[in-house]
Amino acid sequence: MSKQLQVILTALAIVIILALGTIAYFKFSTEDTWLCQNGVWVKHGNPNASMPTTGCGTVVNNNYNANNNSNINAIPPVTNPNIIVDFPQTNDELTSPVTITGSARTWYFEASFPVKLLDETGKEIAAVPAQAQGDWMTDQFVPFKATLEFLVAKDQNGTLVLMKDNPSGLPENDEKVEIPVKLKGVETMSVKVFFGSETKNPGALDCTKVFPVDRLISKIQTTAQAAIEELLKGPTASEIDQKFFTSINSGVKLQKITIKDGAAYADFDKTLEFQVGGSCRVAAIAAQITETLKQFSAIKNVVVSIDGRTEDILQP
After folding, report:
1. Which of 23, 32, 130, 201 is in Cβ range 3.0-4.6 Å of 144 for a Cys bridge?
2. Judging by DSSP bridges, how do beta strands 301-306 and 263-268 pair with one another?
3. Are residues 93 and 195 in the same domain?
4. Is position 237 within any domain?
5. Burial 147-178 (b: 16+ CB within 10 A, else e)
């Protein structure tokens, strides 16, 4: 091979290598790509590829052991690309009340999706909707927040379940993420709250007849106040299955309760009487509040007020 031909071939090889290097640079350079920032995919430059569908900000942990829920670095495994949980992470200890935070897309309906907490036996001990913290009608990640209150009598394992809202009710549209957590126990006591019952008082023939169910409260709470707050939560899913019901509006707030000389003075916000009509329902509401408070030996009489008013409230 002549020296001149060698020079030509060498120059041609250099040109090819430079061309391939240039192509590779522009193909793989991070100048035009998608970057993960604060749990959201953000354009950098003008990437040719569409936005990634994998979760942004969630790390697969190779140390996670699904059999015993152990995790050396306490990072949850990726289970769904459309939801990112910032808190809690796997095996975090939860103390009531606890605020759940993260970001999601395509999981919302009417700006929320269900969140529930299970104890070590799989029993539901708390459930609330997670609320979108921005415009939820988008295909981008939107932050969410949910605050759970729960009571367990001892330290134990639990499971946080975040479920895609599924208004269709079709099983094929169900999605959920489960995070194993640790639940901090507190010393508890049992109180009773009173509801109507379709099985024990069919047709509510006696409007004042109400029946007790047991609820756990923390021993550090003010007992009478805690009992009323439990009453205002209404029946649990299990109690509804047993045909218990409440005549009290949802969203009612107890503003103040005072116990003096054997009487309990309970003041509620105006939601208590909002669109309440009929003597039977009024009597049922009064019975639920009165019986819940009179379970305590120190209380003989109950006075109900709304925004401080005791006259002309809960009129039929």
Report:
1. 130
2. parallel
3. no
4. yes
5. ebebbbeeeeebbbbbbbbbeeeeeeeebbbe
For 2-21, the pLDDT digits (tens) are 666 665 666 666 767 666 55
Tokens of 66: 């699904």
In eight-state DSSP terms, residue 293 is H
Question: Among all chains, which residue has been given the structure tokens 């920032």?
Answer: 37
Q: What is the pLDDT of residues 153-202, one digit of tens each?
A: 899 999 999 999 999 989 989 999 999 999 999 888 999 999 999 999 99
Residue 85: beta bridge partners? 102
pLDDT of residue 94: 96
Distance CA 89, CA 206 (A): 50
- Collect all residues with Cβ–Cβ distance below 8 Å to 52 and sequence separation of at least 6: 34, 41
- The candidate with the shortest Cα–Cα distance to 199, out of 215, 211, 213, is 211
**CA–CA dist 134, 160 (Å, integer):** 23
| Residues 302, 202 within the same domain | yes
Residue 125 lies in a domain: yes
Residue 234 lies in a domain: yes
Residues 112 and 178 in one domain: yes
Number of structural domains in the chain: 2
